[in-house]
Amino acid sequence: MIIYKDIVTGDEIISDTFNLVEKDDAVYEVDCKKVTVGNENFDTGANPSAEEAEEGVEDGSKQVIDVVQYFRLNFLGDEPSGTRAFGTKKDYMSQLKTYMKKVVAKLKEGGADEEKIKAFQTGAQNYYTKHIAPNFKDFDFYTGESMDPDGMVVLLNYREDGITPYVTIWKYGLTEMKV
Question: Which of 78, 92, 109, 111 has its CB surrounded by the most CB atoms within 10 Å?
């Protein structure tokens, strides 16, 4: 199995157990699922008394996005109110430009040639223009477990069916760790 980590922060972002679909030589789009967490039933073998059975227990389960849950991604903003960290495209572009500069520096540090760096920059710009900017209001933003403000921002949106969640992950912002 390969775990992909943020090249800047080292946070685990995704693994090859998910179907990573490359787009514009810049990002991976990964379809996700909603999973239910909580409400675990631990059978200790004891019989509950009639009194306890009548009271019942509040259902503590909730639905979450599998990738967000498994890789401990953190919502950027205030989840209960739905307020996002990046209220405008300009806010997000500011963070993205800073992140991209850090990725380019890491790629150069790793010996990447100018052609690869140019392909990354062109692909990222094309993907942003075609997919992110026109649908900006539909995206939620997540960051890795460390919540490092310099790290990758993972974008979450829903497919045209309105049911299937997917994340967008910057391809060149990842390093591989084989486990």
Answer: 92
Measure the CA–CA gap between 160 and 123, rounded to whole angstroms: 23
pLDDT value of residue 54: 46
| Sheet containing strand 74-75, strands side by side | 20-23, 27-31, 165-170, 153-158, 140-143, 74-75
d(CA 96, CA 93): 5
Nearest to 173 by CA among 147, 144, 145: 144
Whole-prediction pTM: 0.84
Query: In sequence order, what are the beta bridge partners of 27?
Result: 23, 170
pLDDT at position 38, please? 80
Q: Is the CA virtual torsion 83, 168, 134, 162 positive or negative?
A: negative
Helices (H), 73-132: 89-109, 114-127
| 29/31 Cα distance (integer angstroms) | 7
